[in-house]
């Protein structure tokens, strides 16, 4: 039988009174429903997201750090190396995108199962299964689950960290809760250190505010996990970026300057399948596509009301607090949007939302219960239809752009630009990865070379510059041979065709 949890939070329950979480923990249920949700999530990724689809721009940066297929791309200040290490077991010896996608889909399904299982005893299994299903069927979760990107893993780390922190903060002696707190925090910091700090702010406040006998071990586990996960990022800041402060400043500059900036509208524009909304212009998506986003906080608030009335507010309140701090930088402090930024928020808020929905359809003794069941079922069916429609469009767009990069890379090989080689210009980072070349730039966020250095390199290896059709090439490449390849212009350095591949 599961251990009863007594999770105090700012005096929310009377001493000795039965707690809702304790009642739930007496009937925790088995892990089978959670395993089925996780398995369904993995299967949906493999079926709907097309494992053969090539790597995206950011993915090529992360994968190139460990792949023998191409030289490592420039690693800008905001990035962390967690994703590169995550994909290393496959990418370090295989260039197969399909194999990498299958590996990540399986791993993401396992991660979801572990993250949900942490919450057994704090919420009924049926609530956790529904929460997992709600999170797993968002188009953005399905799209990024099998990708070499960090945000999904921040979301998984957040669920593990918050759930284990609640258990550890309850005063129990289970080492598993302390280890889970630290490992969840480490996973977030390993992937995106600033995000880990934002997610754990409420946990840090709660740990510091707790009585001394209750705070020490959870606080140490939390801080230890954050430092362990971010250690490499901090060391690299001093080795390669001029210090931690400089790396943070560079990261802010690359992201357009972090500060007060309401990006709520930008995030709404991204809900229609725009994986990166920068600059975020154009009209809003159809209200049918965005309705769920505006309903989400209302249902989450209902979940909190239900938890307070049931005298078990602590888990729900902490989930919503961490979800709020996770969303603050991407809703109010950045000048552009990407739907994946809010994955940790969606993962944390999914449990209170599921709790509210389960309560609506199961509460006994109400004559209008059939109406509620019908409305909830119809709403969920419509929501799934919208999510899968957006996913299909997003996957198709991504596949088209990745195919275009592969076609350009094949044309470069036909022109004699083969490894070792270097590319500069428009979309040179992903195209260089596809072609097996280095990517070089003299300006912008990925600046890592000078015009003189590129000219010197062109004397002993193939170098190409890519521009938009009719675009003006840099001065050092104006006299280079010009070719049109699909929707780009390619200029190759002198003597490329005569060099031996």
UniProtKB/TrEMBL annotation:
Keywords: Cell membrane, Glycosyltransferase, Membrane, Transferase, Transmembrane, Transmembrane helix. One of its GO terms (molecular function) is pentosyltransferase activity. It is found in: Cell membrane. GO terms for biological process: lipopolysaccharide biosynthetic process. Residues 1-27 are annotated as: Disordered. GO terms for cellular component: plasma membrane. The chain crosses the membrane at residues 32-50, 102-120, 127-145, 151-168, 175-191, 197-213, 220-241, 291-310, 317-337, 343-363, 370-391. The keyword Flavoprotein does not apply. InterPro entries: LipidA_mod_glycosyltrf_83. It is a multi-pass membrane protein. It comes from the Bacteria. This is Integral membrane protein. The lineage of its organism: Bacteria, Bacillati, Actinomycetota, Actinomycetes, Kitasatosporales.
